[in-house]
Specification:
Number of strands of chain A: 16
Distance between the termini of chain B: 66 Å
Strand content of chain A: 25-35%
Distance between the termini of chain A: 30 Å
Radius of gyration of chain B: 18 Å
Largest sheet of chain B: 5 strands, mixed
CATH topology of chain B: Ribosomal Protein S5, domain 2
CATH superfamily of the largest domain in chain A: K Homology domain, type 1
CATH class of chain B: Alpha Beta
Strand order of the largest sheet of chain B: 1-2-3-5-4
Helix content of chain A: 25-40%
CATH topology of the largest domain in chain A: Ribosomal Protein S8, Chain: A, domain 1
Oligomer: heterodimer
Structural class of chain A: alpha+beta
Order of helices and strands of chain A: EEEEEEEEEEHHEEEEHHEEHHHHH
Order of helices and strands of chain B: EEEEHEHEEHEEEH
Largest sheet of chain A: 6 strands, antiparallel
CATH superfamily of chain B: GHMP Kinase, N-terminal domain
Largest interface: A-B, 37 and 43 residues
Shape of chain B: globular
Strand content of chain B: 25-35%
CATH class of the largest domain in chain A: Alpha Beta
Number of strands of chain B: 10
Number of domains of chain B: 1
CATH architecture of the largest domain in chain A: 2-Layer Sandwich
CATH architecture of chain B: 2-Layer Sandwich
Amino acid sequence: MQEIKRKYVVPGDKVIEGNFRPLMNVIKAGNSIIATRIGIAETGRDGVKVIPLSGVYIPRVSDIVIGKIIDHSSLSWEVDVNSCFSAHLPAQDVFGRDFSPARDDMGKQLAIGDLIAARIIAFDRTRDPMLTIQDKDLGKIPHGELLKISATRVPRLIGKRGSMIQTIEQATQTRILIGQNGIVVAMGRNLDGIKLATRAIRMVEEEAHTANLTQRVKALLNVPDSPQTEGSTIIQRPNNQKDEIQSTIEEVEEEIEGEKI
Amino acid sequence: MSQAKNLINGSGRRTDGRTADELRQIKITVGVVKNADGSAFIEFGRNKIVAAVYGPREVHPKHMALPDRCILRCRYHMSPFSTDTRKNPAPSRREVEISKVMRESLEPALILEDYPRAAIDLFVEVLQADGGSRCAGITAASVALADAGINMRDIVSACAAGKIDNKIVLDINDTEDKEGGADMPVAYMPHLEQVTLLQLDGILTPEQFNECLDKAIGGCNMVYEIQRQALMQKYFGNETELKEEQ
């Protein structure tokens, strides 16, 4: 791993002085880079960013989110994605290009109150997020236990290369879907398993910024600590949580796309 | 302005035993309101104030939304039991004014352009008042905003200075405010070194004004350290430096 300098910051703190590229949650003021959020500042080769530890979900293009249908017009569904912007799912995305509002009954496909896994295909400062469910593993979520966690805890819940969520899934015999917007759905036949998974997820949310969390989650789930599954990347180092928080959005997406949903 | 009694005694102590440059005891707790996105509780001497931040969230009514940035809505309110005699809970002229100045003192620190068409709601509830509650409110609100994870250029710290017995002192309390010569609340961004609120009630000479402002800014810097510590404590515990590994 190349050299990455990390430090704790609060808004207004100077992260570093010099000619660096501001990446995320930082602003450039004169010759220095200033943090704009509470979190862990990282200065790497490609620039400076702050990994936030608090905040609500702000949509980003290509995020996978879990949302609830709250309304529909004649051409699109309105979806609550746990953000200050409500998202839209065009009817053509579900019915195909020959969608006709007169012929097709939107309520039959997705009713108000339904839960969907979707990807954000367009979002900018002027437009509300636009969703699609046309992809592998996207679409209506038929059943499951719904949980809301802070969106900043999502990378931690997934863990490095999915380690945390895999541990929880295997130990509780459940399938867990995680949206980048902090909405989590636990599914499975075993009710006790879902209960246990819920407790583990809550524990990860509450103690996300503490060290050795994977060990404690394993203790809660009665999983023996196996060094093989952990690998050499996350073993009891004092700040292993920073490695995990680091899991980039891309990694997280791969996890969700490839395995979880 | 006439003064009924001596507010500074022979040994230079004020009515509550402080020296001229001494702040009251300040304690800030972060994250006290479970349902809020960010919150803080401040004890500023005998002031007890809760600040809660909700948002960024959808704007209702929708016509208030701005296309290019977020709106900040602020409500400063004193509980009926916060004062000696019961206070009518309806917003008074004073509360409306403080809500406004509080909003205006926090807006420069927030990067509102990052959240277009959204709103941030800030509620500041005074549970116990003892002079300087707007400064304590701004201080708590700023911590709550940082706790809510809203992009900020800097944290806003606030502190008052004033004149009692013709002497400039830091952090005026209720008695000193009522019986003293002048009260100057100041809100300040310590890193940017910019003043976001400056009010003055009373009469000061230009020299006294400068001295008072300098003293208040010094107080803001002290308040900032407490704000920073409170935030650090909540998010990183007692660790202040990240240990390097690899």
